[in-house]
Design goal:
alpha+beta; four-stranded antiparallel sheet; PhnD/SsuA/transferrin family substrate-binding protein
């Protein structure tokens, strides 16, 4: 999900294949089609990364493997947040100042770009529509472009994506500023097919723990901002449904 620098993703995939092979698991590194929902539900899926919100709303059959600890501002353990981003001239404002303005989100099924923003405006909305309009851009990068081009006024951006863009595509952050951030939630979960055996799930977790622990993989992990790993369960992501339901109680079902 954080494939912002292809060479780093390829290197990480190569190391994972080696670690799995050492445990008798043969894996092939594939690039999924844009239809990620289908990819995540493939019978032969060994390991992939999804977003927490689709996990709890659409992916009831997959198994959770774990979650990386990311080394980026806005992260703590497995937790991460969304940064509220606006144009630099809006510096000093807070979310309430964007009532009646234009929001842009990467996708309606996104935790960081949509559910987090919905949770934050819910208590401010008074049961009324908070934004004048909401555009769906297709990606966090395109949401940032929409802000730069004055097609939108505010967006919620995954804090790990922000850190990777600072490193690899800083031009996408030019003229933009962070005006707030969401509370922490568990980060993007690593998943496997429902048909993956319990023994192999345990081996996947063992391999991922070795990835973040062995000095020889430190460079590969640092390139991807990975600083640790923890096993997680589906129940760890129940908070995301609580955010959705809390917003609904405030009369906010859609942004």
């Amino acid at each position: 999900m954080y494939d912002l620098h292809r060479a780093d993703t390829v290197a990480l995939g190569g190391v994972l294949k080696e670690l799995f092979a050492a445990r008798g698991i043969v894996a092939t590194h594939v690039w999924p089609s844009p239809d990620l929902l289908t990819h995540w539900q493939e019978e032969g899926l060994l390991l992939s990364q999804t977003c927490g919100y689709p996990l709890v709303t659409q992916l009831d059959k997959v198994q959770t493997v774990g979650c990386f600890h990311y080394q980026a501002p806005g992260c703590e353990g497995i937790g991460y947040c969304s940064f509220l981003v606006a144009r630099a001239e809006e510096s000093g404002k807070t979310l309430v100042d964007f009532r009646g303005q234009r929001a842009v989100c990467n996708a309606i099924e996104s935790q960081s770009g949509y559910n987090a923003l919905r949770k934050m405006v819910a208590s401010l909305s008074g049961g009324q529509r908070f934004f004048a309009s909401v555009e769906f851009s297709g990606s966090h990068r395109q949401s940032l472009v929409a802000l730069q081009q004055d097609r939108a006024d505010i967006a919620a951006i995954d804090c790990v994506t922000w850190a990777l863009l600072q490193r690899h595509q800083p031009d996408l952050l030019e003229g933009l500023t962070i005006i707030g951030q969401s509370p922490l939630t568990p980060g993007l979960p690593l998943i496997t097919s429902a048909s993956t055996s319990a023994d192999n799930v345990a081996l996947l977790r063992e391999a991922l723990q070795q990835l973040v622990s062995d000095a020889q993989y430190q460079q590969v992990c640092a390139a991807a901002l990975i600083g640790g790993f923890a096993a997680v369960t589906r129940e760890d992501y129940a908070l995301l449904l609580e955010w959705r339901d809390e917003a609904a109680k405030h009369g906010v079902v859609d942004l």
